[in-house]
């Protein structure tokens, strides 16, 4: 069975879920053009997910994907948090922020029993997971809804782990990808592979379809991924400039600046390594810093700096998630971009 | 003009020069199969280069490539060297090596006036450079011989720099590549790009042909690189297991071990970041270590450890250069491998 048949979409093309930069509008536009639209749920309340799904269903009968994070919530560590805030004290002073006023950030929620309930109620055609999979009992509930399951792998070991647990296809997240690295069996970043190495290795190792992700931004990239043996692709950063995305103004601008080509993996914004355009905060404190609180607790400390800087049109403290091929693009409607990418599927 | 026409070879396929792992025999076998064989000169005396070139010319009339490094030799730094050897003292003790007995290593030689003389005398069809280009006056002498010039770029900025200086084609070295990273304008490793991002960016930015390198190990990889816009490919690690390579026994074995998939960039062996299979020395001291002497001076300190360990069939202290797609292969004659790779050029 082709990946498109598995997903129920016209094209074997998934719009990558990008929490914080898109909601139903982007998913709807991609669905309308034949791709599989995705709704990132990690930063949404259950009610918000319900509303967004209602919006998608009001606009399209096409299948769509609900995406969830599967991290374990760490125990709060007040000492580590205080030490990190102390390290950021010069920034708070610069912006006139009272460190005592800083609330814990919204963070990102993992997949819980409430999420399983939501999936049972909403019955999306596809559910995708990042950072591994939820606990077996919760996973079984998702499987029982009939949803097709996707999950990200960054190594052969992770892909085999996912296959054993019954996912329907594996997303091969190359090192080029923007946003959070999906690794979950090891946090040794040297194990992360470029897409040129990862896709053929997963294709050889798995009996499941492999979906290539990371650095795919045009039809040639789609075609090259298919040549490497992928059954389909997941594209994220290329959609960030679409009017249907909710990408912030500073993020949009950064993506079009000449230096957008310099991205790095940073843990400064959330506590987990994620690829974003290098900005002042990353240059001065990272991009990787061992003192950062654990994911997702790091969000709180930088939030007020980000908010104040953004209010001045400045992305110095914002996570400017982007892949290594995200810059140089122009704004384009998501449907048009999807159709341009789809050209890569012809003549394989 | 096609890249093959530029190089004078039947195929737009370059066998990557791999100093320390191959000499004329591999180059000859690749030339005979229609690729462009390469002779790495960085670790050879002028006399050895002359002998190797004579061997190539005795075996084939096909064009071949002489490859040189273009680093600047750092001033010796006795204090830094002593500190590094002190850090390695437990290993010397373990192997019963007298630290006072350790000579400076053979290192790697940059391109000098003597190298230019050699090129003028030997007149290879192609000369390729790593770590930038030699000084303008030396470069002009190479150009005056009529040799076609290739050089490695790891970023768009480096590729433009090379194009301005008159190279005939640029080698896009993706982060997947084995051996030394070729970066020369910045040593910020976060600027290094996966091949999926690097090739399209260089193709867009340059008027020159782009040669894709890094993670290409089979015909599908060749085809995918061509789909991304490359004019040809350079393949290295895949040739390491060929009988015509001089790859050491421990290196050959490591390439076939199950854990060969875990490579990392390390500066421990030479002073510059290079990708190799993770071994004991890399796990315990790196893979990157700020105390390592500057390239190529780091070679000396580890040399006796490497020699003794290798004599026991152990690669714990050897540079096991390999790309991210180098493992899982079987020994194959270089001609057969070249013909298998060449299938990737058909039906683009």
Which fold name fills CATH's third level, the topology of the largest domain in chain A? TIM Barrel
Series of secondary-structure elements of chain A, N-terminal to C-terminal: HEHEHEHHHEHEHEEHEHEHEEHHH
Oligomer: homodimer
Alpha plus pi helix count of chain A: 14
CATH superfamily of the largest domain in chain A: Aldolase class I
Quickly give the structural class of chain A: alpha/beta
- Major protein interface: A-B, 40 and 40 residues
Quote the distance from N terminus to C terminus of chain A. Answer: 17 Å
Number of domains of chain A: 2
What would the principal axes of the Cα set say about the shape of chain A? globular
Uncertain regions of chain A: pLDDT < 50 for 5+ in a row?
Answer: none
Q: Which CATH architecture of the largest domain in chain A would you pick?
A: Alpha-Beta Barrel
Question: How would a textbook summarize the main sheet of chain A?
Answer: 8 strands, parallel
Task: Please compute the radius of gyration of chain A using only Cα atoms.
Answer: 19 Å
Strand residue percentage of chain A:
5-15%
Average pLDDT of chain A, rounded to a whole number, is 95
Got a strand count of chain A? Answer: 11
Strand order of the largest sheet of chain A: 1-9-8-6-5-4-3-2
Helix content of chain A: 25-40%
Q: What's the level 1 CATH class of the largest domain in chain A? A: Alpha Beta
